[in-house]
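Appendix B: complex inputs.
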Amino acid sequence: MDHFSYNSGVLHAEEVPLPAIAAAVGTPVYVYSRATLTRHARVFREALSGIARVEIAFAVKSNPNLAVLRVLANEGYGADVVSQGEMDRALAAGMAAEAIVFSGVGKTGSELSAALDAGIGQFNLESEEEGVELAEIATAKGLRAVCALRVNPDVDAGTHAKISTGKADNKFGVAYDRAAAIYGRLSSLPGLEMRGLAVHIGSQITTLEPSRAAFVKMGELMRAIRVAGHTVSHMDLGGGLGVPYRAGEVLPGPAEYGAMVADVVRDWDATICFEPGRVITGNSGVLITEVIRVKPGASAPFVVVDAAMNDLVRPAMYDAWHDFAAVAPSGERFTAHIVGPICESSDTFAMNRETDRVVAGDLAVFRTAGAYGATMANTYNSRPLVPETMVDGAKWAVVADRIQPATILAAERVPEWL
Ligand code: LLP
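Resulting structure:
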């Protein structure tokens, strides 16, 4: 459920008509709904109420906007970060350092060092080598790094290949069969406090079975490691729960997911950590765009909008579907290709899409754009970096400026020898 709905024929975010934001900020522009973010954060937490000890670290990568992070900090969420940049954002948003989990396969020495200095709550180690390096850095500082070992359970999440992370050939975590031995070796290092295991098998997972299978395997591993005499007090089950991208699509939601996890972890006697991203932010955002013009095509007209693959890359990168809808629909429908202005054919949002009929100058939205939208934006074709806004009831504010090409140009230099 979200708070984007039509009122008197005009799409609103909560109480704000989207044309008001488009008129003030221009297009394309992202709009987030504070009420939707808060609702999703609460629904997800509530769904886990059958589990005794729970920690939730929002996957910052899905939407790192400072205002979004502040909303989640206010809901008591910690952060799952994968770079120093994300860590700094989580801290700037007011998240407690102890509530930050640092994931990622390529944390650099300087990132490990900065995270230790910041006093983050947990490092999710992705290799034995990383653990050894972190132990050295921590020992030199006279500190002990609190760690979990990320394990690759070799389970197919059944999602798009580019966002699958739990198969043996994916780069993430340590091999399942080697995990117990590595855990034992890392536990003996003075700079580390090994306290748990972590797993994350992929994103936009639309059935519960793969996650259940992975969690069951992780439970078996946890028991084996405990039998070997080591402590496992924390089990991090990652993120990955999918969201509906098409109107009417029904997927297992937080309640079904929470019930499944509660069943699997019933006798684990561990704190269970979660790293949700998309399920919190996905439906909390839309991207407003203006139709530049409609031109004839061989099989259907091309609707050329002013948003492009640099603003919302998911369709180009993962063949992802985002619902497209007019902000003030006429009631007429047609079938069209929806494309951006960038000079390559991958800048296509949809082919042969049955949608609201739009004409030049109309406003429209791509829905479910709050996760992996603005955060993956870039300036390809020397376009501006897309701005972000947040609505709260009848109020709204710009929460990230449009960075103009001139600002980016000003950071470039022509060496004097040219
Ligand atoms: N934890 C870890 C270790 C992750 O790698 C990810 C996402 C998450 C949590 C959050 O997963 P979520 O709950 O959002 O599914 N750009 C892609 C998605 C990449 C996801 C990467 N990892 C997309 O637009 O679909």
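Residues 173 and 318 are 23 Å apart (CA to CA).
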